UniProtKB/TrEMBL annotation:
Domain spans labelled GED: 641-732
Keyword Glycoprotein tagged: no
PROSITE patterns: G_DYNAMIN_2 (PS51718), GED (PS51388)
Organism: Micromonas commoda (strain RCC299 / NOUM17 / CCMP2709)
Name of this chain's protein: Dynamin-related GTPase
Organism lineage string: Eukaryota, Viridiplantae, Chlorophyta, Mamiellophyceae, Mamiellales
Length: 742
């Protein structure tokens, strides 16, 4: 086609430049495919070092512009964008050149001399790989505009080599293969596999690699070079027909310039004329003439690429729209960086503090925007602490559980001091009930501290959820200020709780309407005493245990049923043990009467140990260091113990109920509600200082890098979406729709 005007098909003229534009947009923005599955359609040129790959590319351009030499020349991927320009556009006002090149790394600089293009390729290659023979996967992007080219985009990849030269590493073959595979493994990439005709096509390096990623040959175009130097009497017709290695996209045969032609500076146009002459006069290629020559290669590659782009464009457009929305969300989540204006900085800090305080309140009251369905969060956890942990834990307290009758008897005697004990032991009751009330102090205070910890948990969660993490100093300062404010709220809460407990200790209100009272306690104790006597008699006569158990359960309807039931069960076990002992003695020759006699004797011996009779004179002895209260000898003494236990349990239940009600209220008022009301003001007073604001808005370097990357990605995707959006009108004028065929 030298000297002839090329009428390029409209589909190629419209779609290939679009993909070129998208490639340039993404490259200039510093993003690579902006996502794992966003791959632009392209053609990768693959071949061994001596396959004639460079000659094929120069033949398509019609110019010498690629570095040449005995060793590896293509050491970085060269993205070659060929753009067809009609004659009238190229010579408008006799100022614009007919043909020119432009590098993406030197935008706006026009190269009209193709020798200068070759030199710039060499210089840019050396800048990225060194002056020896190193390779790099960093692309060089070159656009060539000419009326003698068909619109297409090719990626010239380093030639496959096996022997390292210069400063190339020992695994240079593997590195180059991996680089090639990284391009051709993509489904969006067509493969132009260049193989010399004077070697076995089945062993072609290019076809071997392409079969690894395209085993069915659906996206591989075969190029057979050097047809003119095959052995005499042989031809490549079987290759071109796909009879040796089938490819769905077929093969094209070409004749390259030989080294002598290059040395003698024979032009490519002359070489293409000789190529056409070769195929016209070779009888073997007459039947496959449509598969022969550089012109056929150009039209075939351009048509296949345009169709390939048309097939992929709808899905590509959808992916770009999806990635753009994702980038927009990411950019929004990263927010703006620190503004330069001090006023805007102050406003931003106030906005962050207000948002954090508002989020804290929402979490406590259950109005959070992100309500969890997996577990309790925020205020629900505080309610759980107050009701399920504190109240139920308090209700499980029983002051009489670990207090035996001997303990109560000892307390009664100690409270009486030098006086005797009347029927209703008021003093001992007050001593014991205060001891029991004091045991509730620790869980009450612990309740406030657990709620304090839960509020701290809410604070930490909010800091992680909101965008405060973008500003490490602000996040840490907010966390510290919140922690201090929570401590300030805990102090009055604990003080109030201690006061509530002290109030219960300050006045034992025996006139409380729910208190069992002395007379009722006495009646209950008498009933219990009567039951015990009956149980003792029943044990002596061998009464049925179940019947006894039923009598004890009747007493359980009382306010202190659980206490009395435990005492009854203990007495039943004691009666069983006594019966077993009596039976054992009977079997061994003794009797129950003997046991009673032994018990009386033991008691008499204990008493006599404190004094002695000698010659009609009583001699008193010193008491032991530890004196246990004597067992009750009369019903009156036992009644005192029972009455005290009943009174203790009744009054403790009243105090427990009061604290179970008032402690959560104190925690809510002095801690939870106080923090909600004053947190924002506290944060402002602590952090909102003109000299502190700029440092609070210092971002983590990683955040700044993420924002820059997200902004570049969003801009690139927006530009890509705009470019695609402008296509339908252009193609409609040519009778082609997006993704459609003519």
């Amino acid at each position: 086609m030298p000297g002839a005007h090329i009428h390029q098909n409209t589909l190629g003229d419209g779609l290939v430049p679009l993909i070129n534009k998208l490639q340039d947009i993404f490259t200039q923005a510093g993003v690579d495919n902006v996502g794992g599955d966003l791959e632009l359609p392209q053609i990768a040129v693959v071949g061994s070092q001596s396959s004639g790959k460079s000659s094929v590319l120069e033949a398509l351009v019609g110019r010498d512009f690629l570095p040449r030499g005995p060793d590896i020349c293509t050491r970085r991927p060269l993205v070659l964008q060929l753009v067809h320009t009609p004659y009238q556009h190229a010579s408008h006002h006799n100022q614009a050149p007919m043909e020119w090149g432009e590098f993406l790394h030197r935008p706006g600089e026009i190269f009209t001399e193709f020798e200068a293009i070759r030199e710039e390729i060499e210089c840019e290659t050396n800048r990225g790989t060194g002056t020896n023979k190193g390779v790099s996967d960093k692309q060089i992007r070159l656009k060539i505009c000419s009326p003698h080219v068909l619109t297409m985009t090719l990626v010239d990849l380093p030639g496959i080599t096996r022997v390292p030269v210069g400063d190339q590493p020992a695994d240079i073959e593997k590195r180059i293969r991996d680089m090639i595979l990284s391009y051709i493994k993509r489904e969006s990439c067509l493969i132009l596999a260049v193989s010399p005709a004077n070697t076995d096509l089945a062993n072609s390096d290019a076809l071997t690699l392409s079969r690894l990623v395209d085993p069915d040959g659906k996206r591989t175009i075969g190029v057979v070079t050097k047809l003119d130097i095959m052995d005499r009497g042989t031809d490549a017709v079987a290759y071109l027909r796909g009879e040796v290695v089938p490819l769905r996209l077929g093969y094209i045969g070409v004749v390259n310039r030989c080294q002598q032609d290059i040395a003698q500076r024979r032009s490519i146009r002359e070489a293409r004329a000789s190529e056409a002459e070769f195929f016209r006069h070779h009888p073997a290629y007459a039947e496959v003439i449509d598969k022969c020559g550089t012109e056929a290669l150009g039209w075939t590659v351009s048509r296949i690429l345009a169709d390939h782009i048309a097939d992929l464009l709808p899905a590509l457009s959808d992916k770009i729209a999806t990635r753009r929305a994702e980038a927009q969300r990411e950019l929004k989540s990263l927010g703006e960086g620190r503004p330069e204006d001090p006023g805007r900085q102050s406003a931003m800090v106030l906005e962050k503090l207000h948002g954090y305080a508002a989020g804290f309140t929402k979490s406590v009251v259950g109005k959070s925007d992100d309500l969890s369905t997996a577990s309790l969060e925020g205020g629900a956890r505080i309610h759980f602490v107050l009701q399920d942990i504190f109240v139920k834990g308090l209700e499980s307290l029983d002051p009489t559980r670990a207090m035996s009758e001997e303990d109560i008897r000892t307390a009664i005697q100690n409270a009486a001091g030098t006086k005797g004990v009347l029927l209703l032991p008021d003093d001992s009751f007050e001593v014991l009930v205060k001891q029991a009330i004091r045991k509730m102090s620790d869980p009450c205070v612990k309740c406030a501290r657990i709620v304090h910890d839960e509020l701290g948990r809410i604070a930490r969660t909010l800091i992680n959820q909101q965008d405060l993490q973008r500003y490490p100093r602000l996040a840490q300062s907010v966390e510290d200020a919140t922690r201090d404010f929570l401590v300030e709220g805990l102090v009055p809460a604990e003080s109030m709780i201690n006061s509530l407990v002290e109030c219960q200790l300050a006045h034992i209100n025996t006139s409380h309407p729910d208190f069992v009272g002395g007379s009722q306690a006495l009646r209950m104790a008498q009933q219990e005493l009567k039951r015990r006597r009956g149980a003792s008699t029943a044990a002596g006569t061998g009464a049925d245990d179940d019947e006894m158990s039923g009598d004890e359960n009747d007493f359980g309807e009382d306010v202190l049923a659980d206490v009395t039931q435990r005492n009854a069960l203990q007495r039943k076990r004691d009666a069983k043990n006594k019966a077993k002992t009596a039976l054992g003695r009977k079997l061994s020759g003794g009797s129950s009467v003997d046991a009673s006699i032994d018990k009386v004797k033991d008691k008499e011996n204990d008493v006599k140990a404190l004094y002695s009779h000698e010659n009609g004179v009583v001699s008193l002895k010193e008491p032991p260091g530890r004196i246990q209260a004597s067992e009750p000898e009369t019903d009156e003494e036992l009644l005192q113990v029972l009455v005290t236990r009943i009174l203790l349990g009744s009054y403790f239940a009243i105090s427990r109920g009061v604290l179970a009600d008032t402690v959560p209220k104190a925690v809510m008022h002095f801690l939870v509600n106080s923090v909600q009301r004053g947190l924002q003001q506290h944060l402002i007073q602590s952090l909102y200082h003109p000299n502190l604001v700029p440092s609070l808005l210092t971002e983590h370097p990683e955040t700044e890098a993420k924002r820059l990357a997200a902004r570049n990605k969003y801009k690139a995707l927006s530009a890509a979406a705009a470019a695609i959006g402008a296509m339908p009108a252009d193609l409609a004028a040519a009778g082609v729709g997006v993704g459609g065929r003519r």
